[in-house]
Amino acid sequence: MEIEKIDDNIYEVPIGYRPGMRVPGRIFVSAALREMVEPGTVDQVANVATLPGIVGHSMAMPDAHLGYGFPIGGVAAFKEQGGIISPGGVGFDINCGVRLLRSDLQARDVQPLINTLLDALFQAVPSGLGSTGRLHATDRQLTESFLRGAEWAVEEGYGVESDLDFCEENGSMPGADPSQVGVKARKRGRPQLGTLGSGNHFLEIQRVEEIYNPEIAKRFGLFKGQITVMIHCGSRGAGHQICTDHLDVLSKAVRKYNIDIPDKQLACAPLGTPEADHYFGAMVCAANYAWANRHIIAHWTREVFDRYFPGSQLQLLYDVAHNVAKIEEHRVEGKKERLYVHRKGATRAFGPSRTEIPAAYEGLGQPVLIPGSMGTASYVLCGQDKALDLTFGSACHGSGRVMSRSQALRQFTGKEVKAALNRDGIAVRSTSPGMLAEEAPQVYKPSGDVVDVVHNLGIATRVARLVPLGVSKG
DNA sequence: ATGTAC
Fold first, then answer.
1. Cβ proximity of A203 and A133 under 8 Å
2. Which residues bind Mn(2+) 1 (predicted)?
């Protein structure tokens, strides 16, 4: 059975596409991007549609690609009564997310110092595979980060109280249960608090290249030629281990509660069971850890900027989570209901009618931060109420890979990737040349095309485009 | 994404 175009940028996976689908699937792509969605990703959208208690549609954002069980770029919401929770719908890097700091500096004043600045940031913020921090958190501090996330980080002197207003969930999600975090996850997570990690995670110095919506840009504090800093990272080994450990528990729960799943990777538990509660409690720990992590990294970034540009300001514009399950109220068939919304490689994009958006952005909607791949533009958008009707208030999270890591390694070398970026005027620091090859700009879809879909659907409005000047990676 | 293997 074929998927069907039902509107511009909307394709439907009909209920008959595979047995057991409870709702149709929806893939939000342009005709051009449709060609880039592999058949396996469509199958995953259909698989998710078979899970108990799913409401609306099993959805894939324009940057969707194959993931563990659920597609990356997947959004699925489940009823509190009769629904499930699944680690595959959240991802291994729990609360991987993006934070944007806006400065009061002009690019022309920063450009001459870019290499010095980047060296200092590379040193101040530990990065790389298995990197450990400057922080040396104690066991007790680790628990506090699980329980209170960025709120705890502020108490420890990282960032300021007002930063919390500009984080999703104020940087601290309720419901953490540290007793459900195993010894191994704690052991991996403790030394990694305050580290960037590897892969597509980065810290980037950017310039505001274009303003699309002057009114919203002004309210977000953005202007052309401005320096911004974007931080993309998550919960490191802690979140990964929590996901691994609970997948094991939930695979057994699938048998225990007799859930019929078309793919073992969709391991899940019915909401209200101990297994579901335990995963949720542990997932919140990792989510809070990630907010603390980004808070600490932002603090060190501010220290470096203060060293080279004394008195300069780096204000937090916003911090979004793009790998998390959340309890949210949504209108389902005209009635308000509490749902477990899974966003995996998908960003929340709440519009002005939601109370969750920061008071400073009242009447606008939340900032939606879409990082580009290394060397390509990132975007700031503003969530719209239409997203509530179409996607439970969700948008894409990035550009999405078009080539595997191994394929990239066969095709590029780190040295040539770095040289090409330098030719484009982008400075790069990295702990591993191989990683630069795996993250070459060519292995990702063009982020602008993905953003166009979201903008044209009315899910989120384009506000500004940011281009990289210098990037620090694992 | 990730101590890329229990």
1. no
2. 93, 201
On strand B, nucleotides with any atom < 7 Å from a protein CB are 1-4
Closest protein residue to B4 (Cα–C1'): A129
What are the pLDDT digits (tens) for A263-305?
Answer: 999 999 999 999 999 999 999 999 999 999 999 999 999 999 9
Amino acid letter, A467 = V
- Give residue limits of the domains in chain A: 4-402+444-473
Residue A1 assigned as binding residue? no
Distance of CA A305 to the CA centre of its chain: 25
The set of catalytic residues of A is 397
As given in the structure block, the two tokens for residue A363 are 């009447």
Residue A210: strand pairing partners: A465
Distance, in Å, from the CA atom of A258 to the CA atom of A264, rounded to the nearest integer, reads: 13
- Nearest nucleic acid nucleotide to A196, CA to C1' distance: B1
The CATH fold assigned to A4-402+444-473 is tRNA-splicing ligase RtcB (3.90.1860)
pTM of the complete model: 0.98
Nucleotide B2 C1' to residue A368 CA (A): 26
| A371 marked as part of a ligand binding site | yes
Tokens describing residue A341: 């919304």
Q: What would the pLDDT profile of A139-159 be if each residue is shown by its tens digit? A: 999 999 999 999 999 999 999
